[in-house]
Amino acid sequence: MESSTKLSCEDFVAVLATKAPVPGGGGAAALVGSIGMALGNMVGSLTVGKKKYADVEADIIALNEKADALEKRLLELVAKDAEVFEPLSKAYGLPKDTPEQQAHKAEVMAVCLEQCCAVPMGIMEACCESIDLCEEYAAKGSALAISDAGCGVICLKSALQAASLNVFINTKAMADRERAEELNVKANAMLDEYCAKADAIYQAVLARLV
Question: How many whole angstroms separate alpha carbon 125 and alpha carbon 123?
Fold first, then answer.
């Protein structure tokens, strides 16, 4: 199948709506995150070159470079999510009739579940970094584009929360409960800090518009 990120928007949504195992929630979260960061980046692009914002131009250019990298990383994670999920979907169907088969399935499942947690965790980390950038875009960027910074941060919050669900569904299936709890704690810490930060950025933007 063609890489998810090479599909048109219409084709991506059409495949997402089918029973095909990929793309799924993790890939959708990464795509929404990339869109959110792109909206922040757009604020920067609309700010650079404006005399009114000459004093922050160097800061904005630096932000745009970081945003470019985060957009690319999140798009790569769309494809990576599909790459790691397919082996897990197959692992669930492995036979477990004999002790040997049960041991083999448990071993394969452990590896696949770890990989399937690592990708949405990476999406969450990228979203947190992106929310930090949107905070700066909202504070320093062109007032004419401030709504786009708000739109971006809401997309990123949604992507962060969506990715966390893809962590939690996989940690729930882990036999190693200590590892599962370690990952859950890390994911919850990001949610606690960055959902609140995203809400604060959104409210700050809204206050400048109404």
Answer: 5
